[in-house]
Each structure stands twice: as structure tokens, then as C-alpha cells.
Amino acid sequence: MDLLSKPAIVNYVDDAVAADHIRSARRILVVGCSGGGKSMLSQKLARQFQFTYISIDRDIRWLPGWAERDRAEQRQRIVERIAADRWVMDGTGPSTFDIRVPRSDIVIWVRMPRLVCIWGVVTRWLKHFGRTRPEMAPGCIEKVDWDFLQFIWTFEQKFTPHIVAGLAKHGPNVPVLQLKSRRQMRRLLDLLGSPA
């Protein structure tokens, strides 16, 4: 029986319970589809709680010019970074949940509707047109193409089962907060006393 065919037990929590976990957390993992706002949320939490901000895109996966690091090197870089005591890590990649989720005190799953995510990547592209955004590796100029839009459009269908299975397998006791709207994200930040 493979991972996806087993019943998935994920420790979902509501935003009030999650806010309590976040206040006492030392390590927070933020996952979700591109354009949903996970980088923005991660950076706000890192600033508010004085955590190191780790971007999978900037610090782990990409080299200048959109060259992808070797998978073994990516894993090693993750292992080195999660050994630290206080961090917020922004990035999905269920293939590394086995090392990231057990080390996390809470997982925040930014699970926005796909139109919100598409709007997010298009506005991000316009904002950083011809430049590299801060949470991306140097020399990776912001871009949007058909393949990327298709990835976002099918993310829920293709990747959510892997996220759920990975969370259930590698962190059955790790609390998971799903943020499914901008309003819910603002409410979480309000509960934490963060500037929105």
C-alpha cells in the first residue's frame, strides 16, 4: 500500500489554537501554492518573533539564472538550516517533509483558491518586473509563463494529496493550520498582534 492510499490523519487546528502554538513555537513551516502569500506571511512572522527566515526558493533550490541545485545538495542545505533553533521556513516540497515536518512546532498551510494564487503571481511579476524578488535566489528574474500558471491551476488536484499524506506520515502530532482566505490570514495576524 503506498503513502497516498493510506488514510491520512492530520492534526488540523483552528486559528485561535494555532496562534497560541505560534507564540510558543521555535520552528514554523509555511507551505502552499505559489502566489498564495506564504512568503509574505513567513517574513512577517520572522520579523515579529525574531526568527531566521529561510526561503526554499532562495536558500535551497535555485542558483542564479534559474539553475536548479542537485537534489542531494538541496537536502543537505535543508538539514543544515533546520538544525538551527529558531526559524520560519517558507516552501512546500513534500519530498523533504520527512526532515522538515518532524522538526517543526507548527505547519501553516496557505491554501488559497487558485484564482487568488494566479492573481498573486501576476501582481508579484508586475511588481518585480525585470528584477529578482527578495525571497528568490539572486539572478532569478521574476517570470510568469504558461507552465507556471498551469502548475498553479492544477496544484490543489495534483499536490494536495501529497501534502496531506506527507503531513500525516511525518508529523501526525504537529499542529497544522489551513489558511483558506486572505481574511483568515489577516485574522491570524490580528490574533498574533502583527501589523497586517
UniProtKB/TrEMBL annotation:
Which superkingdom does the taxonomy of this entry point to? Answer: Bacteria
The residues that cross the membrane are none
* UniProt cross-references to InterPro entries, sorted A to Z: Cytidylate_Kinase-2 (IPR052922), P-loop_NTPase (IPR027417)
Q: What is this protein called?
A: AAA family ATPase
- According to its UniProt entry, this protein's organism is Ensifer adhaerens (Sinorhizobium morelense)
